[in-house]
Design goal:
Layout: E1 2-5, H1 15-30, E2 34-35, E3 45-49, H2 61-70, H3 75-80, E4 87-92, H4 96-99, H5 107-118, E5 121-124, H6 127-134, E6 143-145, E7 169-175, H7 184-191, E8 196-202, E9 214-216, H8 221-230, E10 233-236, H9 245-252, E11 257-259, H10 265-269, E12 273-275, H11 282-294, H12 296-305, H13 312-328
Parallel strand pairs: 1-2, 1-3, 3-4, 4-5, 5-6, 7-8, 7-10, 8-9, 10-11, 11-12
Helix pairs in contact: 2-5
Length: 330
């Protein structure tokens, strides 16, 4: 089996999808799955990511149509029928209009829906993702839910010193985006609690007061893994996320999570942390931290017991099961 991934990865920080595809490609190569370098190479399956090619911008619907029908975007390949048609698998994230709390579909939403209609199979990252597409009248029986997975050689508990119940709690939050719905105001509110130190990695919006947050710029995967291992818990107040990669990275490093219940975050974080209160004030934050402290050892034990669930080994095997099934349906 040979796969073409219609997404250009970068080693620089570029969001969760970029991190996931870097890790997925490593998994494929480790398992002797060939990765095509160019869209017009010979391969069996094209894997697309919503409506984005990463740093190369939006996907091209004409490219996908031609690959599905003719196996190539080359005029001569199509005219001479030199390539076999390819299977298309679309990895869908979520509806951006919902994430941005808008009533109308965005241009990127319309693009990913067009691409999804061409797909032979859909991979959703969460049940919430399925439900969000159904709200806009898109659904298919040819679909599978597969949560993301992280690189266990980077994100792990090796050399981690867990909280002993005595010292001051170290909180880490991270976001590549400075979108206000990422919850920067909540992170700032937590930093005013004297029982914790709060560090944030990523982009902080100028419109939000940092309070006592120690902000640093976005980090590479290696640097992020080291920072996670130094923290005691992860704070993820982002609203409407479908399957945040950074939460899986935090869990894989042994961190309980304080998270926003909206979206699909709770599908992965609920057994291992505490959901945020609907109100964010001094009393609510104190209560949330008290629950975290009281149940810290329970969360820690569950995370360690289930650590393989967060790994690319688990997610990657599920992707290959789908690919093999699709390839066998000639």
């Amino acid at each position: 089996m040979k796969i073409f991934i219609y997404y250009t990865i970068t080693n620089n920080p570029f969001g969760g999808a970029n991190s996931f595809f870097r890790t997925l490609i490593e998994f494929f190569r480790k398992n002797n799955i060939e990765i095509a370098a160019h869209i017009n190479d010979e391969y069996d399956i094209m894997l697309i990511n919503s409506g984005s090619r990463g740093q190369d911008g939006p996907i091209n619907i004409s490219d996908i149509k031609n690959v599905k029908r003719f196996g190539s975007t080359s005029f001569w390949d199509m005219a001479l029928k030199r390539k076999k048609p390819k299977k298309i698998i679309s990895r869908l994230d979520g509806i951006r209009a919902l994430y941005a709390q808008q009533n109308e579909l965005t241009s990127m939403d319309l693009l990913q829906l067009k691409a999804a209609q061409l797909a032979d199979h859909i991979i959703y990252q969460s049940v919430y993702s399925i439900e969000s597409f159904r709200r806009f009248q898109f659904q298919t029986n040819q679909c599978t839910v597969i949560a993301n997975g992280v690189n266990p050689s980077l994100f792990n508990t090796v050399d981690k010193i867990f909280w002993d119940g005595q010292r001051k709690l170290q909180c880490l939050a991270a976001s590549w985006s400075n979108n206000p719905l990422k919850g920067h105001q909540t992170i700032a509110a937590f930093s005013e609690n004297s029982e914790i130190d709060v560090k944030f990695i990523g982009r902080w919006p100028q419109s939000v007061d940092k309070k006592n947050v120690n902000c640093v710029s976005a980090k590479t995967q290696d640097e992020l893994a080291l920072a996670l291992k130094k923290a005691d818990f992860f704070l993820h107040p982002s609203e409407g996320d479908n399957c945040p990669n950074v939460v899986l990275e935090a869990l894989s490093c042994g961190l309980p999570v304080i998270y926003h219940e909206s979206g699909g975050t709770g599908e992965i974080a609920q057994p291992y942390g505490v959901a945020l209160s609907k109100r964010i004030d001094k009393q609510a934050i104190e209560q949330t931290l008290q629950i975290l402290k009281k149940d810290y050892e329970i969360f820690k034990a569950r995370i360690i017991d289930h650590q393989t669930m967060f790994s690319i080994e688990t997610a990657g095997k599920k992707y290959l099961e789908v690919f093999n099934r699709i390839c066998s349906n000639k």
